[in-house]
Amino acid sequence: MEFRFSPEDEAFRSEVRAFLAAEWGPGRDARSFTKKLAERGWLTMSWPREYGGQGAPHMRQLVYNEEMAYHRAPGQTMGADRVGPTLILFGTEEQKARFLPAIARDELTWCQGFSEPGSGSDLASLQTRAMRDGDSWVINGQKIWTSNAQRADYMILLARTDPDAPKHRGITYFLVDMRLPGITIRPLIQMTGQAGFNEVFFDDVRVPAEMVVGEVNRGWYVSTATLDFERSGIGRVIGGLRTFEEVVAYAKRTPARGRPGGTLFDHGPTRLALADIALGFQVGRLMSYRVAWMQSRGLVPNYEASMAKTFGTELHQRMARAAFTTLGLAGQLLEGHRAPLGGQVPMALLQSVSLTIAAGTSEINRNIIATRGLGLPRG
Ligand SMILES: Cc1cc2nc3c(=O)[nH]c(=O)nc-3n(C[C@H](O)[C@H](O)[C@H](O)COP(=O)(O)OP(=O)(O)OC[C@H]3O[C@@H](n4cnc5c(N)ncnc54)[C@H](O)[C@@H]3O)c2cc1C
Q1: Ligand 1 centre from 211 Cα, in Å?
Q2: 48-52, 228-232, 257-261: lowest mean pLDDT where?
Q3: Where in the chain is the domain with CATH 2.40.110.10?
């Protein structure tokens, strides 16, 4: 067993860190930062060279994702990570020529129109309809929880094109221009006060036939490829590490009321809770490394990816709860000069709730671990 990155990967890690130190930090503009990533070819480093990528190995991508997540930098785009690789596999030559260069230059923002009010975990039961009419498909229905729809230029959309076929076999995958007439976007306000989600309504939206990806009625299989392009999930684990480190440092330097000379860190239960989280970060990191290592060997991680996802997202929630308890009453403040660490802990607590729902709930992932990992019968 080799627990090391190659010298080239380590050199690349140093290069990414130097770039982040120079180009990213509080107050920096995310859009111009991702443009610089695009100029370096980092957004599409894993794409094959023939499509303008660098053919970077999985472990190189892992190093990149880990550094971006640790530094809380917007290092990935949906277009480069999911849409581009899907088009490389299933797109027509026209679709590739039209979209891949624009995605690589970070000129297009994408959203994902999969979930519907009655179809989340059971996505194949989706009801949005597309009916063929001449050179177009006419789309009617509703999507929900569509992140970033309000900013997106295009949506990848799943719609039912054969209602009589078994549910997985009557679905088609479309690229939809979000400016088409008949599309209505309604924001959903989250408990953080932010509006990242949307409901998207389709009312006789005419999508040109050349915007179908893959074969008609075979869109389910295209969509599973899109979801598979979510790689090791290292970001879910490491995304909380910086906050954790800042909480530990804060607890060490902050005097505790009622304990003269003592700090928040001197409180026994706090120390144990934080030690437990430190342990979790090491375990979660190794789980994500394992997934990336399997991919680098041409293996297809299955329940291993579900384990990393479940552990990483639940760790994030545990970390946010432990941090919240550590900071005491002031830790509830979201803003103002009295809010410890700029209010990031209560925000992390609120945001962490959704992590065990997005991209497959913990229950669904535990089902996968039970059936495919442990060989137990389906419940
Ligand atoms: C932050 C975030 C971003 C998202 N962004 C997008 C996006 O951009 N585009 C998009 O299309 N969707 C998006 N979603 C939606 C997401 O994919 C769904 O929320 C998720 O698939 C769960 O579906 P649901 O909400 O309908 O819950 P349901 O599927 O209705 O589940 C409800 C509860 O029942 C449990 N459950 C369901 N089936 C089973 C089962 N067979 N066994 C055991 N328990 C079960 C679930 O675990 C859950 O606890 C996003 C969600 C979040 C939280």
Answers
A1: 27
A2: 228-232
A3: 110-217
What is the token pair recorded at 58? 């999985």
Which pLDDT score is estimated for 16? Answer: 98
Q: For ligand 1, is residue 188 a contact (CB within 6 Å)?
A: no
Residues 284 and 237: their CA atoms lie apart, in Å, by 6
User: Residue 230 has what pLDDT?
Assistant: 66
- What is the mean predicted confidence (pLDDT) over 175-190? 97
Query: pLDDT tens across 240-289, in order?
Result: 999 999 999 999 999 998 888 899 999 899 999 999 999 999 999 999 99
> Does the C-beta of 173 come closer than 6 Å to ligand 1?
no
CATH topology of domain 110-217: Butyryl-CoA Dehydrogenase, subunit A; domain 2 (2.40.110)
3-class DSSP assignment, residue 108: coil
| pTM to 2 decimal places | 0.94
Q: Ligand 1 centre and the CA of 310: distance in Å?
A: 14
- Residues forming the active site: 230
Nearest CA to ligand 1 atom 12: 115
Lowest mean pLDDT among 137-146, 241-250, 326-335: 326-335
The two tokens of residue 162 are 């054969």
Q: Give 221 Cα–ligand 1 centroid separation in angstroms.
A: 19
Q: Which of 246, 239, 237 is nearest to 323 (CA)?
A: 246
State mean pLDDT over 318-328.
95
Atom 3, ligand 1: residue with shortest CA distance:
358
The CATH code of domain 7-104 reads 1.10.540.10
Alpha carbon of 67 to ligand 1 centroid (Å): 28
Q: Please, what CATH class does the domain formed by 232-373 belong to?
A: mainly alpha
Q: Closest ligand 1 atom to the C-alpha of 123?
A: 21
List the one residue out of 116, 50, 56, 117 whose CA is nearest residue 81: 56
Does residue 128 have its Cβ closer than 6 Å to ligand 1? Answer: no
**Cβ proximity of 135 and 208 under 8 Å:** yes
Rounded to an integer, what is the distance from CA 275 to the centroid of its chain? 27
